[in-house]
From TrEMBL:
Residue segments, region Disordered: 243-266
Name of the molecule in the record: Protein Atg16l2
UniProt keyword terms in alphabetical order: Coiled coil, Cytoplasm, Protein transport, Repeat, Transport, WD repeat
WD repeats: from-to residues: 337-378, 381-422, 423-456, 561-590
Residue ranges constituting the Autophagy-related protein domain according to the UniProt record: 20-211
UniProt entry tagged with the keyword Repeat: yes
SUPFAM superfamilies: WD40 repeat-like
Nucleotide-binding is among the record's keywords: no
Task performed by this protein: May play a role in regulating epithelial homeostasis in an ATG16L1-dependent manner.
GO biological process: autophagosome assembly; protein transport
Gene: Atg16l2
Top-rank taxon: Eukaryota
């Protein structure tokens, strides 16, 4: 604790302003004393001259008498000096004294002038001194006010310090509470992970049991159908002739079988009744119709079993527009300034080119309708556990798959706001999630160095591929999975085999992959600010695209092919879109406009008419 006399104590500021006032007084004393330094010696010199003049005056009064006496004594004592010198000597002395008197008067006048001048200067200095004294009094009053304000602020400072001390103690208590809650959260997360693993295992066991039951049921139905077919082939039908029913006078009547009759009794009865060498047309038609019904039932069973896998009736795939020639965008048609609450990371068109999905860091997926060159809000999909990293439509356009930071991918059905399935099993954020060429299978890539294949009907991971590097994006072909990684390599995996079948090295970390519709060319975007077209027929890089000003802004920047594979499109960190001609390798166009921040992803609709870009500033832009 600092004492009153210590520099940090409450009396230290008082000593400071006192010393400041003493220094100001000393400075004023020095400045005003300097003004009188010349005047005082001059005045003293004037006094000395006046005293000297008084002495001379007294001497002048006494000297004539002394001179006369001296001259008389000389005249009587000495006879060598002439008389003319005794007569002229007083006159010359008087003249000399008069001249000296005039000189002294001039000196006195000059000194009087100097005294007047110095007196005027003294008056001026006196007025300045009075003015400065008035200013000093005003400053002293101001100092008193400032001291009062300082005292008040010092009291407020003490109060604030007390409040800060209390808040610091509360903060420490909150930190301890947060540490306890974090520990509890970690325990709950571990329990949730264990529960999730057990749930996945139970789902897998339930799916296996369901498949086993379905196979048993199918085998039983097949056995039953085969038995019914055998019975139908052996069964005979009794026909009674009724002459009046047909034009020829004879007719066939089908007699229904009694429930209690056995096949052996029926066979014996038919053997007794029928001794003809032919079979009637009605019997043949009955057997064929029965067989058709049985086969139809079998097909219906298979169809129902197929439906049970997806958990919903199979929907017919919508017709996908065929793009003959893609149209290069030239201008922005619609700009949504605040499409999301935070950064927009992913965008994807539906198969019919009229539905658009965007996902962002706000954990939401917005569906938009492209109507008349405008984006109209359709639906918001909620329930994602983390920031959205990628979105994709299934081939029918009825489901949306998204990768999230919550170590999982989630599946929505278009028209339902809540998530339909959660594909959990990754140990780090999921950076890519894509449907395969069917709506019942998907592939995900993660920063946990794995690529997983999923059976969406059972929400079950059917295969896990371990990789040596982070996976930033995946695409799927007929029987192949292609993944781009952080170690500057593109890997190819056969869906029917366990191992990697090919690796293509590229310069720079791979941020995105785009597969052409004919599955012959692959477009990759990497952090070395280049796009590369890989010819999958020869497994070699065919084109490398660069441009002045183009810069890949992040590890999740997406580039895409046009639907006809004629152009390659990517967004840059400066907010511009760059379009290259795939055949010539030249920069076709550079679009500047609404984006003021880095473009994260772009999408080109299947009809080739529209392009959509999203950026870090929450904008969604429709280009035409």
């Amino acid at each position: 604790m600092a004492g009153p006399g210590s520099p940090g104590g409450p009396c230290a500021p008082a000593a400071v302003w006192k010393r400041h006032i003493v220094r100001q007084l000393r400075h004023r004393d020095r400045t005003q004393k300097a003004l009188f330094l010349e005047l005082v010696p001059a005045y003293n010199h004037l006094l000395e001259k006046a005293e000297l003049l008084a002495k001379f005056s007294e001497k002048l009064k006494l000297e004539p008498e002394d001179v006369a006496c001296t001259q008389n004594q000389d005249s009587w004592g000495e006879f060598s000096e002439p008389v003319s010198d005794q007569v002229s000597s007083p006159a010359s002395l008087r003249a000399k004294w008069q001249e000296e008197e005039k000189g002294l008067q001039l000196v006195c006048g000059e000194m009087a002038y100097q005294v007047v001048k110095k007196s005027a200067a003294l008056d001026t200095l006196q007025s300045q001194l009075e003015e400065r004294q008035g200013r000093l009094e005003a400053l002293q009053a101001c100092v008193v006010q400032l001291q009062e304000a300082r005292a008040q602020q010092f009291r407020q400072l003490e109060e604030r310090q007390a409040e800060n001390t209390a808040q610091r103690e509360a903060y420490q208590a909150l930190l301890e509470q947060a540490a306890h809650q974090e520990a509890a959260l970690r325990r709950l997360q571990e329990e949730a992970r264990d529960l999730l693993e057990r749930l996945v295992q139970r789902k897998a066991r339930a799916a296996a049991e369901c498949n086993l039951r379905n196979e048993r049921r199918e085998r039983a139905n097949q056995a039953r159908v085969s038995q019914e077919l055998k019975r139908a082939a052996k069964r005979t039908v009794s026909i009674s002739e009724i002459p009046d029913t047909l034009e020829g006078g004879t007719g066939d009547q089908i007699v229904p079988l009694a429930p209690a009759e056995t096949p052996e009794s029926l066979e014996s009865e038919t053997c007794e009744k029928w001794k003809r060498s032919f079979r009637s047309a009605s019997a043949t038609s009955l057997t064929l119709s029965r067989c058709v019904d049985v086969v139809k039932g079998l097909l219906d069973f298979k169809k129902r079993r197929g439906h049970s896998v997806g958990g919903a009736p199979e929907q017919w795939y919508q017709s996908i527009p065929v793009c003959v020639s893609a149209q290069i965008p030239t201008q922005a048609q619609d700009v949504l300034q605040d499409a999301h609450l935070s950064e927009v990371n992913a965008v994807c068109f539906g198969p019919n080119s009229s539905l658009l999905a965007t996902g962002g860091a706000d954990r939401l997926i917005h569906l938009w309708n492209v109507v008349g060159g405008r984006l109209e809000a359709n639906q918001t999909l909620e329930g994602a556990g983390g920031s959205i990293t990628s979105v994709d439509f299934d081939p029918s356009g009825s489901q949306v798959l998204a990768g999230t930071y919550n170590q999982a991918a989630q599946l929505w059905k278009v028209g339902e706001t809540q998530s339909k399935e959660t594909l959990s099993g990754h140990k780090d954020k999921v950076t890519a999630a894509r449907f395969k060429l069917t709506r019942h299978q998907a592939v995900t890539g993660s920063r946990d160095r794995t690529v997983k294949e999923w059976d969406l009907g059972r929400a079950f991971c059917s295969r896990t591929i371990n990789v040596l590097s982070y996976c930033n994006d995946v695409v799927c072909g007929d029987h192949i999975i292609i993944s781009g990684h952080n170690d500057q390599k593109i890997r190819f995996w056969d869906s029917r085999g366990p191992h990697c079948i090919q690796v293509i090295p590229v310069q720079g970390r791979v941020t995105s992959l785009s597969l052409s519709h004919d599955q012959l060319h692959l477009l990759s975007c990497s952090r070395d600010n280049t796009l590369k077209v890989i010819d999958l027929r020869i497994s070699n890089v065919r084109q490398v695209f660069r441009a002045d000003g183009f810069k890949c802004s992040s590890d999740w920047t997406k580039a895409v092919f046009s639907p006809d594979r004629s152009y390659a499109l990517a967004g840059s960190s400066d907010g511009a879109l760059y379009i290259w001609d795939v055949d010539t390798g030249k920069l076709e166009s550079s679009l500047q406009g609404p984006h003021c921040t880095a473009v994260n992803a772009v999408a080109w609709c299947f009809s080739g008419n529209h392009v959509v870009s999203v950026d870090q500033g929450r904008k969604v832009v429709l280009w035409h």
